[in-house]
Specification:
The protein has one domain: Gcn5-related N-acetyltransferase (GNAT) (Aminopeptidase, 3-Layer(aba) Sandwich), CATH 3.40.630.30. It is built from four helices and seven strands; from the N terminus they run βααβββββαβα. It starts with a strand and ends in a 17-residue tail after the last helix.
Length: 164
């Protein structure tokens, strides 16, 4: 499989929404449509701390009228949040959501998306890139273990509605 990673574009909305639904289904969660709409709008804004990348399968790339190839269909997405941190004067990147279509898994799309985020971090001088996954997500963890080190930190969380 030949994979191209590029910035998320407005024309990717339908593919992004399909993959976003797949991501939410995988984690057995339901995100309200209004939140999905807001997330998409923030991903499209150039001044937003959110940004997205897509992985395309270039085995099925289309040709333009001029003969040059267009990227193939979107097979994976990554949504990230760039934010300030107190331990550095450089921002950190939280790789919040990563999803690859089931048919495209184990062909390098997830690795390519992560490497693209890491490359952007190198280029932009970020302090760190970090992410998390469920403890039982063995397939993802085998990839993540090959790319990054685990930390000793334990995550705590208070869910929405607690402060209402």
């Amino acid at each position: 499989m030949t994979i191209t990673v590029r910035d998320l574009e407005a024309d990717d909305e339908e593919a992004w929404r399909t993959l976003w639904r797949g991501y939410c289904d995988f984690y057995e969660t339901s995100i309200p449509g209004s939140v999905t709409d807001a997330t998409w709008r923030r991903l499209m804004r150039k001044d937003s701390p959110l940004f997205g990348l897509v992985a395309c399968d270039d085995r099925v790339a289309r040709k333009t009228r001029g003969g040059g190839p267009l990227p193939g269909p979107v097979i994976g997405i990554v949504n990230c949040v760039l934010h300030p941190v107190t331990w550095s004067d450089r921002p950190a990147c939280y790789l919040e959501d990563l999803f690859v279509t089931p048919a495209a898994r184990r062909h390098g799309a997830g690795r390519a998306l992560i490497k693209a985020v890491l490359g952007r971090g190198d280029q932009m001088g970020w302090y760190r890139v970090y992410w998390m996954t469920k403890r039982d997500n063995r397939a993802a963890r085998s990839l993540y273990d090959a790319i990054a080190g685990k930390t000793d930190w334990v995550r705590y969380q208070v869910d929405k509605g607690r402060f209402a």
